[in-house]
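Annual report, structural modelling task.

Input specification for the guanosine-5'-triphosphate complex:
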Amino acid sequence: MSFQAPRIPVSILTGFLGSGKTTLLNAILADKQEERIAVIVNEFGDAGIDQQLVIGAQEEIFELNNGCLCCKIRTDLINTLYALIQAVEEQGHEPFDRVLIETSGLAEPAPVVQSFLVDPELSEIYHLDTVVTVIDSYHFLKQVQEHEEVRKQVAFADKFVLNKAGLVNSERRAKVKGMLASFNPAAPVHVTSDGEVSAAELLNQFTFDIEEKLRIEPGFMDHSHHHHHDHEISSIVLQSQKAVDIKEFEKWFGDLVDNKGEQMYRYKGILNVDGFNKRIIFQGIHMLFAGKAGAPWTADEERKSQFVIIGKGLDQDLFQREFEACLTE
Ligand SMILES: Nc1nc2c(ncn2[C@@H]2O[C@H](COP(=O)(O)OP(=O)(O)OP(=O)(O)O)[C@@H](O)[C@H]2O)c(=O)[nH]1
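The model returned the following structure:
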């Protein structure tokens, strides 16, 4: 493909049925009128209703009518993303500045994100920006207990939009926030009603450029010590100033992913590798993971490995022990 332009940012909007994804999408489109945005809507069921609900003349809407975005139909998403480029290159369509994907309320975000990891050519054209998870403040506490999809959407968020805030009192809002933080403490929360959040706060965050964006705040560790036997999804944070023996680490992590990949929804991190002057940045989803060399460590910088794993039924103490076994003395 001869596409020379800078990579096109892609953001994924996820969230349970009725949480306010389309409302947020419309708010973003209204806020970003200067941009040409391609919208991909993945609908549950085959009536093209969502398409009609998205307002805006500038945007092109591509609808995937195959129900949920699951592994089986991931090729549809990939094909759609290629079709967008073809429309520009071969049919004289004006280039797009951005792509927004609204997933079905019942979808898991993993396969969507995986599409970009599994298809290197696609990632030369598109740049995965951020996964935004919309939360229905009013229904969330019930939904999160009842639906595995909601827990996965929460686990996957780079940012939360806590929508319908006007429908709940401050006490309940605090409870929802506490619950979100217990599942996924690293993702910032934007509280709003009717999706009214500035697009600038959600877009161009490039949270998948982990090198730039991974910031594990002090206190993050404390959160991770809470175990959630009732919901079973938790985040584990591993960090150390000791250098990592990369051979040991690869062996451990490879085995881990083979055995526990199903339970590991998302992980990302930076490694301080023994004898290597650059950071190793890696991230993955379930069994799929990728690592690459990042920026060199500077002389005045503390070399440190940090990574976070969000998943189901993971044992923090075991992870910690096994990780420590990969460190040099
Ligand atoms: N009261 C209230 N209603 C809202 C708010 N945001 C959205 N809604 C309403 O909630 C309903 C669902 O909003 P949508 O934006 O369609 O939600 P969605 O997540 O796209 O829904 P699905 O496509 O079914 O998954 C609509 O009737 C919206 O008007 C809000 O902040 N407060």
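DSSP finds 13 helices and twelve strands in the chain.
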